[in-house]
Amino acid sequence: MSHFEIKAYPEMWQSLDMDVERFDKARLMLGEAYEKTYLSQKNRPKSMAYFDNMIAELHGARIKELLEAKAEGRPVIGTFCVYIPEEIVLAAGGICVGLCGGSQGSVPDAEKILPRNICPMVKSAFGFKAGRICPYFQAVDFVYGETTCDAKKKTWEILDKMVPTYVMEIPQCKNPRDIVLWNEEVKDFKAKVEEVAGKSISESDLAAAIKIMNNKRQALQRLNGLRHHMPSPISGKDGLLIEQIAFYDEPVRFSQKVNELCDELVDRINQEVAVPAQNATRIMVAGTPMALPNWKIHNLVEGAGAVIVNEESCIGTRYFKDLIDESVSTMDEMLAALTDRYKEIDCSCFTPNDERISQVIKEYRDSGAQGIINYSLQFCHTYNIEEIRIREACEKEGIPYIFIESDYSLEDMGQLQTRIEAFLEQIGD
Ligand code: BJ8
Q1: What long-range pairs does 317-320 form, CB within 8 A, spacing at least 24?
Q2: For residues 76 and 94, what is the distance between their CA atoms, to the nearest angstrom?
């Protein structure tokens, strides 16, 4: 049987000034991990072949597309947060890509410069740039940063020395005057993108981009809805993978492929084909985003025979639950509609953040889950502290609940496995 490999493009990587030798080793390791985690699953939907290929071409075909766009003068912008108004980038003919930040491999590079006791996502992302081991980072015109959490906003100052980093101020409250500021920030971001693109964005450009992004979000909503079917027609690992790929694939093609997968899942439901066992325990995950290739919790939960049916996360529902109002047509109205939609994202960086607490409970009910795993990356103060309120809400509603704080290392795998298995048993009792 031939082995899965992420394809190598050493010449292109060299042209991007990467540390090719080191990156090639990471490529082989990622390919092995993918084969073990994903291709060993039984009875996967056939339409997952497209997403497998997206991983095989993670460092090749998609990077080529970015470089082609750049050669045509179209901006390529890297991001770490779902508060970026992607529609503006698309409207300027540009591409938005989520940057790497889910791997332990780049953390030591970051720890040579940054403090060790900060969030692994920030360290991993920073390390990818510092070590020159992410082709996306090497290809972008600039990085979009935001003022959500302290770790990120202070890291931007250091990152800016290596790659231009544009910082958008995201307020921490949602009072009317905060929304006025936010709207101004959206306008400034549009001006920045126009400057890099060397063209101004017209009303029809922006309207078209809003439609593309709404279609993408609807495709992801449809997939999420199908995952809620009992039994689930697709594994949680595959669901998460698609949510991760959403951050770097071309949006029109991606939406079409997600819809094709959904058509297959509808057929599976009609034919009563399920990936996990019919009676597999259904789990919802809430909390901090799981950036590619962070599959740790999904691996453990599904390795123990349960199935994850929903991610209340930015790599999950927070990314696609809200659409932009398409009924408005002037530039000012559309920018206000963007602000309105982006402010609905209930990141724990906001205070108060009651909407998120209700949203977690709502998603739990909608997904037919039987328990919640609240997951926070280590040293993420806002999600770690908001844990208290999520726990209290779960206790009040009688929802089986467990909190897991972890990083990207494998050191706590044994301990987590024991805790997760005990949690699943408790639900089964
Ligand atoms: S909107 S969740 S993507 S900020 S986990 S880096 S918060 S210390 S990722 Fe996030 Fe935007 Fe919010 Fe979503 Fe900081 Fe916490 Fe690390 Fe985080």
Answers
A1: 317/224, 317/359, 317/363, 318/82, 318/345, 318/346, 318/347, 319/82, 319/217, 319/220, 319/243, 319/246, 320/216, 320/217, 320/218, 320/220, 320/221, 320/224, 320/246
A2: 6
* Centroid of ligand 1 to alpha carbon of 226 (angstroms): 27
Nearest ligand 1 atom to alpha carbon 377? 5
CA of 246 to the centre of ligand 1 (A): 17
CA of 150 to the centre of ligand 1 (A): 10
| Helix (H) and strand (E) counts in the chain | 19, 8
* Ligand 1 first shell, C-beta below 6 A: 81-83, 119, 121-122, 148-149, 151-152, 288-289, 314, 345, 347, 349, 377, 380, 382-383
Nearest CA to ligand 1 atom 4: 148
Q: Kindly give the number of the ligand 1 atom that is closest to the alpha carbon of 345.
A: 1
What's the CA-to-centroid distance between 148 and ligand 1, angstroms? 7
Centroid of ligand 1 to alpha carbon of 288 (angstroms): 6
Nearest residue (by CA) to ligand 1, atom 14, is: 149
**Residue 422 C-alpha from the chain's centroid:** 28
What is the number of the ligand 1 atom nearest to the C-alpha of 80?
3
- Report the nearest atom of ligand 1 relative to the CA of 150: 14
CB 233 within 8 A of CB 275: yes
How many C-beta atoms lie closer than 10 Å to residue 1's C-beta? 4
How many angstroms separate the alpha carbon of residue 287 from the centre of ligand 1?
A: 9
pLDDT tens, N- to C-terminus, the chain (429 residues): 568 999 999 999 999 999 999 999 999 999 999 999 999 999 999 999 999 999 999 999 999 999 999 999 999 999 999 999 999 999 999 999 999 899 999 999 999 999 999 999 999 999 999 999 999 999 999 999 999 999 999 999 999 999 999 999 999 999 999 999 999 999 999 999 999 999 999 999 999 999 999 999 999 999 999 999 999 999 999 999 999 999 999 999 999 999 999 999 999 999 998 887 778 999 999 999 999 999 999 999 999 999 999 999 999 999 999 999 999 999 999 999 999 999 999 999 999 999 999 999 999 999 999 999 999 999 999 999 999 999 999 999 999 999 999 999 999 999 999 999 999 999 987
Give the SS3 label for residue 310. strand
DSSP element (H, E) containing 308: strand 307-312
